[in-house]
Structures are given as C-alpha cells and as structure tokens.
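User: My collaborator and I are trying to settle a disagreement about how two of our proteins should look. Neither of us wants to argue from intuition anymore, so we agreed to look at predicted structures for both before our next call. Could you fold the first one, then the second, and keep them clearly separated?

Assistant: That sounds like a sensible way to settle it. I'll keep them separate. The first protein:
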Amino acid sequence: MIGHIKIDRKILEWEWYQDIKVFHFFLYLLLKANHKDGNWKGTPIKRGQVLIGREKASKNTGLTESEIRTCIKKLLLTKEITSTSTNKNTLITICKYDVYQGGNYAISQQNDQQTSRQLANRLPTNDQQIATNNNVNNNKEDNNVFNKYPLPENFNGLPEVKIGIVQQLLKITKQTDLTEVQIIGLWEVFKKQTLTGKKYYEFEDDVYSHFINWSKNQKIEKNGSSKTGSRSVGKSIEFDEP
C-alpha cells in the first residue's frame, strides 16, 4: 500500500485521542480506508470505507479481537463510524472521511472555509484556483509556504502529533515501539540527509509528510535498531551517514 493520509493537529483535541487503543485503531482505519470508490470480491467499497476481518485487524494492529470490538463500539457511540457486519467481515464507514482527508478538520472547518473565501477575494483571478483547490491530500491552504528550498535550520522541534503518527505507523508496519526520543533522532537524521537546500517543498506539511513516509521505509528491527547504519542516534537506533 502506497500514499499518505492527512492528520490535522486538531486531532489532539479529539475526545478519543488519549484512549491509546481507540486512537490506534482509528488511525489504522484511516490508513486502510479507500480514497476512491472500488470493489473487493463483488462487494462495493466506497471512498472512506474499509472492509476488515477482526482476526486480520488484530494481527495488523496488535490489538486483541475483544479490544477491536470495544474500539468499534466506542467509535459507533460518538458517530465517528458506522458498520455493517457479516459472518467473516465488517464494512466500516468513516463518517467524516471527507472532512479528515479533504483538508478541513471538523473543529475548524467553518473558520477555514471563511478564511479561504476572504483570501480568494483578495487574489487575482488566476490565483483563485490555487486558494480553493480541494483535491484529496493536496489542500495546502493552512500550511506555511517556503521560499523554495528548505534547510534544516528552517525547522526546530518535531510537532507532537507527527511524533505520534510515526510511532503508530511503525507499530503497524514494523511491529516496533519507538520512544519519542528515538523518533526525534529519526527526524534529525532526515533533516540532515534530505533538507540540503536542493529539494523543493512548496509547503511545510510536505516536509512532514515526506518524513513520515521516509520513516516507514527505514530498516528498523523489532527491537528498535536499524540494519542500515553505523552512527547511533539515541540509545538503540543506527543510521547511515548522509
């Protein structure tokens, strides 16, 4: 599976954010959900839907089948999802998928739309299409624009929500639990290797998205160490020199 999803920082205000199991499972649903309509073995699966089997979902997330049932009940309770079950699978619909992945998180959607309209009214006609572009995963209206080629000094710390995303992503894809310090170590190596002033990024969030995908491709063993390098970062992860 390739591609990426959008996670707005306002997810820190979400009522299930501190429920680690629910947050982990919901992030798994966002990663697995269809970004466009499709079919699987004759079953229509629309954009924002995902067909899961509890046994496979348990293996992929590290949650027990009982914990997954509990997560589903909680998400149903707050109308984050709807679900239709069969003997083998459960079709889950993420109710606000277009809000999450269309560029405006629910809490700030109305304010962001108003800001976009005000900006569009001030721009020349040719630029209005840029301000109102709402393609999936390409809405950049809330991000900071770089001059053209960012350097490591353009960034200080890594936002907490990005640290959480990488931790969850590596837990899902590599069954590896990394600490916040280790994720920051990854970030520092990424900045040194990638932000050389030669690679173009139009928006700040493009850099974070690249870092998240870069982290997923690192050869990290289950014990938290890397197979690729010679220089240690933190206590147990090693990376190649750039």
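The second protein, kept apart from the first:
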Amino acid sequence: MGRKYKHLNQLDRDRIQALLDNKHNQKDIVKILKRNKGTISREIKRNRRKKHRSGNIIYGKYESTVANHKAYLKRHYAKYQGMNIEKDKLLRKYVIQGLKQHWSPDEVSGRMEKDQKTFYASKTAIYDWLYSAYGQRYCKYLYSERYTPKKRKKKKTKKVLIKHRIGIELRPQVINNNEEYGHCEADTIVSGKKTGSKSALTVNYQRKAKYISIRKISSLKPILFNKAILDIKKEQVINSTTLDNGIENQWHYKLNIPIYFCDTYASWQKGGVENANKMIRRYIPKGSDISQYSDKYVKMIEDIINNKPRKSLGYKTPQEVMIENNLLLDRNESRNKKTQVALEG
C-alpha cells in the first residue's frame, strides 16, 4: 500500500528554513526530512516571499512563518476561488476581457500577477469558474477544445432488486465444506456483445461431484433461467444452489430451492461454476453468438466434461460419482448410463 500524503506543518517549515540558512541544498533537506523531492521543491518555490519591482517578480528569502501562513491561505481559499471570481466584479471583468482576447486562463492569471492587480485568481480557479454554471458560457473563448467541458453520458442502469435474498454468509457450514452431495452453484454464459445476440447458457455445477449441466436460453429473462434450472432439477438432486446478483436471478424464490447469493463483485465465492465456465469456453469461445450452437453440440460439451477423470475425485469422472451416490434421478439415469457406455466403447 502506498504512503499517505501528509502536508508540511510549522515544524517542518522551521527545519527547512534552518537548513537553508545553514547553506544546505534541497537534496540535503529531502534526506533529512525524508520527504519527496518534489514536495520540498514546490514548498520553497511557492511559499517564499515575493516582491514586485518594475513589473518583475523578485523572489526573497524563505521564511517558515510566512510560508506556513501562505500555505494555510491557499488551502483555506482553494475551494472558494472559483466563486470569488463571480463575487468580485473587477476580477470577473478582467478574466472575461482576457478570455475574449483569446488568452488562456494561465495567461490571464500570470498577467494579473505581473500587473500587480488588487485582485487575483489562479489558473485553476479560472478553470473552476469556467466549468461552473456561472462561467460556462465563456468556455467558447478557450483556445483548445480539450478544455471545453463535455457532458458526460451517464449509463442508465437498472438497479436489480432481488427479493427474499439470503447472503452467502448464512450458507450452512456443511455446504461450505463440501460435506454433502447435491449442493450446487449456477451461472450464465452470455453471447459476445458485438454479435447483438441475447442468447446465453445456463450452467449448473454440483459442488462436490463436479458435475455440470448446460441449457441454452434465448435471453437472460428470469423466467427462462428458472425454466432451465427446473429442467435440470428433474434430472438430478439439487438440495441448494449459490447464485450471483444478476438480473436473471430475480425470481429465485419461485424455484423452491434454498438459494444463497454471493457478495457483489465476488465471483470467486462460486469458484466451481466459474471454473466450469472456463472449460466450456474451450468449445464456445468468448465473443461467440451462442444462438449459433445447437443443443446437440451443447450436450456434447456437457458429456465430454462430465466424463473427464478428475484428480480431486480420485480420478473418477463426475458422471461416475453422480451415479454412485444416486444423484441422477431414475428417468435420466438410464440415459446417462448409455452415454457412459458409448463413451467407454
């Protein structure tokens, strides 16, 4: 973690003055005070005495009490300088006249100081005033368009409010520790933005058995996501599932399954299904239009992954673990056994 910036105080400035009086250079001061060289350089340059003679600025000796007072005034009035232009009629008139002559805010500020006017505004204060409601109409006099304030387009995002949401912190420890079969994680894989397609994949992952099920859906509408999960539930035991906070999960309470939600931006809390998504991406790369892949192709991906020997399962396949633990329901068990025999053959 980077060091937090700390303003110089009176004691620091006393030490700077003492070191300068004893003919130490800025490198020595940086080492002794253990401060950034830029901090020391700016402090000496900005906060020493200034005298105006014949239109020229003459810099005087650095005095700690003067420097500390100048620094205080700058910090105290920095946020108000933009408004000061609006309040001071002479200052405002001078700034506008300079802008109309196509002077930059830096040139207006510098000339103001050179002419020893009774008023003053820094270039930053002038920019702040220009970007406020008071000075915006004078932005057209600025030389470079890059200083013209641009209206930022705010993305209109709908807040997804998930009713009856139960956070992952309330998920039982027996699930967290993978002590029981039948507890799942679910997620969606979407089509690439450039394709313009709304099609997606619903992916269900058995945490302990590492078994995946994939269903194509035409969009992320909650009703379609629920339909996919319920279709998967007909084929296997699902005692609970963990979801993220996506819009497709708004109707989770209609599934009649205990549902736990990850924290916002914490996809690692359902790392099993995230890893399954990566395996699926080998066959359906990112940016693809999912609508172009057939249900048969999607089922092939499912079968390949579920029949891979996994080290974490003692080199059994997820398919074998599901069958051994009676997690596949009767009407689908025969079909899966046929698939397994076909793959072995």
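Some points you might bring to the call about the second protein. The CA atoms of residues 115 and 331 lie 93 Å apart. The two ends are 57 Å apart (CA to CA).
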